[in-house]
Amino acid sequence: MNHIVTVQEAVTAFGDFLEPTDAELAAIEQEMPVILADVDLLDAHIVTLDRVPSEVDERRIRRARRRALAARVALVNRTVDTGRSGGAA
């Protein structure tokens, strides 16, 4: 008879290492506006998958694309501003 062995102990032994660090959570929080804007853009595209996009659909996609681009620009500007060293000499 073959016994089935679980690996629960091996998995939970490294449970603390599987959690995201505070730095990773902060990075995700900083990128959240970009993630949400991309989700809105995907939603706008998904709506039009099975039909020809109407004028309203096209406007929705354009607005979502602009919001996604603006969120990316804002993220880049934030990371550039935080990466700069101290004031002028």
Structure notes:
By secondary structure, the chain is mostly helical. The chain contains four helices and no strands. It has helices at 8-13, 15-18, 22-47, 55-83. Helix 3 (22-47) packs antiparallel against helix 4 (55-83). The longest helix is centred in the C-terminal third of the chain and has 29 residues, at 55-83. The protein starts with 7 loop residues before the first helix and ends in a 6-residue tail after the last helix.
Question: What's a quick, concise take on this entry?
Answer:
The chain is an all-alpha fold.
Shape: flat
Mean pLDDT: 85
Strand content: under 5%
The Cα radius of gyration reads 22 Å
Number of H/I helices: 4
Global structural class: mainly alpha
Query: How much helix is in the residues?
Result: over 70%
H-E order: HHHH
Tally of strands? 0
Distance between the termini: 78 Å
The largest sheet, given as strand count, sense and whether it forms a barrel, is: none
Low-confidence stretches: none
